[in-house]
UniProtKB/TrEMBL annotation:
GO terms for molecular function: nucleotide binding; oxidoreductase activity. It comes from Paenibacillus oryzisoli. The keyword Oxidoreductase applies. Keywords: Oxidoreductase. InterPro entries: Gfo/Idh/MocA-like_OxRdtase_N (IPR000683), Gfo/Idh/MocA_oxidrdct_glycsds (IPR050463), GFO_IDH_MocA-like_dom (IPR055170), NAD(P)-bd_dom_sf (IPR036291). Gene3D superfamilies: Dihydrodipicolinate Reductase, domain 2, NAD(P)-binding Rossmann-like Domain. This is Oxidoreductase.
């Protein structure tokens, strides 16, 4: 199949920059896609960070330490940007103004003011496609639930719970990094770090809360700085947001949680939707399984646990009996982005990557959550249509 080659530059060659490179390197795993990312340039402020890309990707033609020089390269079509949150506004705006398409990492700005500046740049450049990285909805089990929501299968929604939990900060001897500092991660703390993953589907489903009551906690208050001293650990470790949703025809509570300290959890992303006619649940703890409970008046209430086959949004070599995992979800997200760059609204399947508007909605909720935690009050949220 003739494929449209999309020439990518990567800004930020850390953890996530490498994940994209790994997906691009196994693009042959996708069997029916007519576009392909080619990483031709990489940029990191730390020159040592680009070494891995040069060693492993034959496609890299140029390396940079100054992202502005990379943006001046006219042969680059699109950018993946994965840098600390304090740099999102400046770098994303420059990318968008350069006319290159952008898949940017969440949370799309360190705070709501930064996010607003990014949104204004997007408004000024409507021809540029901008999407926000968020991969978990591409698990086949989650796609199954997205389908059920689209079919209105749930009856009256009783409640929704969604969360992203891990325990990587339970160890108090773990050295501090930029994600534990307000200057680089932002005042949102764990919400800015993990929250877009949790809000992606609720925002896609139109479940924007009318109000939020937040409980934010700091559990480990200082950490080693790696140089023999202890330094303050400034950001929120865990957040529980109790929201009220009213969509006009549905009113229900929605509990969202992001936890960096959840003992026993490695990278647990989950969503649970309870309804009067149907309930469903998916968690990455059991990534093959979807639980569902159909209910008819007076009938039996029993959970059905189904192994979902490897039936991804974009077809792959992997047979249906096998398991789907984290790196598969990243590959699928990238397939959706490249498909959208190539075909715009005529994508091969309908589930597109998270939009800037969905990311902006997450900022609206996190900002209200900070106020709620500060005042101890429930904060009303108003949404512009
Ligand atoms: N989608 C996901 O599952 C996921 C997972 C982890 C992190 N993230 C997001 O990815 C982004 C980066 O996180 P990470 O974990 O990859 O961080 P990281 O610290 O591993 O990598 C960030 C890189 O950015 C580089 N950098 C810093 N300033 C720069 C500049 N001015 N120009 C170019 N490069 C610069 C750093 O040197 C570093 O190599 C964040 O927005 C984070 O929230 C997303």
């Amino acid at each position: 199949m003739q494929k449209k080659i999309i020439r990518f530059g990567v800004i930020g060659c850390g953890l996530m920059g490498k994940e994209f490179a790994s997906s691009a390197a196994r693009w042959c795993h996708l069997t029916h896609i007519d576009s392909e990312p080619r990483i031709v340039a990489v940029c990191d402020a730390n020159p040592a960070a680009t070494g891995w890309f040069q060693d492993n990707l034959a496609s890299v033609e140029a390396t940079y330490t100054d992202y502005k020089e990379m943006l001046a390269n006219p042969t680059i079509d699109a950018i993946y940007c994965a840098v600390p949150h304090n740099l999102h506004a400046e770098i994303y705006i420059d990318i968008i103004e350069s006319g290159k398409h952008l898949l940017g990492e969440k949370p799309f700005g360190i705070d709501q003011a930064a996010n607003k500046l990014i949104m204004e740049a997007i408004d000024r450049n409507p021809h540029v496609i901008v999407r926000c990285s968020s991969e978990f909805p591409f698990f086949p089990g989650v796609q199954q639930i997205v389908g059920w929501v689209g079919e209105n299968k749930f009856g009256k929604i009783i409640e929704v719970e969604a969360g992203f939990w891990h325990s990587s900060d339970l160890d108090p001897t773990k050295t501090i990094n930029w994600k534990r500092r307000i200057a680089t991660n932002g005042e949102y703390g764990c919400m800015g770090d993990l929250g877009m993953h949790v809000l992606h589907l609720p925002m896609r489903f139109g479940w924007k809360p009318n109000s939020v009551r937040a409980l934010l906690s700091k559990i480990v208050r200082e950490r080693p700085d790696g140089k023999g001293e202890m330094v303050p650990c400034e950001t929120w470790d865990n957040a529980i947001l109790a929201c009220e949703v009213d969509t006009g025809d549905q009113q229900f509570p929605m509990v969202l949680s992001t936890k960096r300290i959840a003992p026993g959890h490695a990278n647990t992303w989950f969503i649970r939707i309870m309804g009067t006619e149907f309930s469903a649940e998916f968690t990455t703890k059991n990534p093959k399984q979807v639980r569902s409970l159909p209910y008819k008046t007076g009938g039996v209430q029993s959970w059905h646990i189904t192994d979902t086959p490897y039936k991804s949004a974009y077809e792959t070599l992997t047979g249906g009996i096998f398991e789907f995992g984290f790196s598969d979800s990243i590959l699928q997200m990238w397939a959706a982005f490249c498909d959208e760059l190539t075909h715009r609204s005529k994508m091969a399947q309908p589930f597109h990557c998270a939009t800037p508007e969905e990311a902006a909605s997450s900022h609206h909720i996190f900002t209200a959550a900070l106020e709620s935690n500060r005042t101890g009050q429930t904060i009303s949220l108003h949404w512009e249509e």
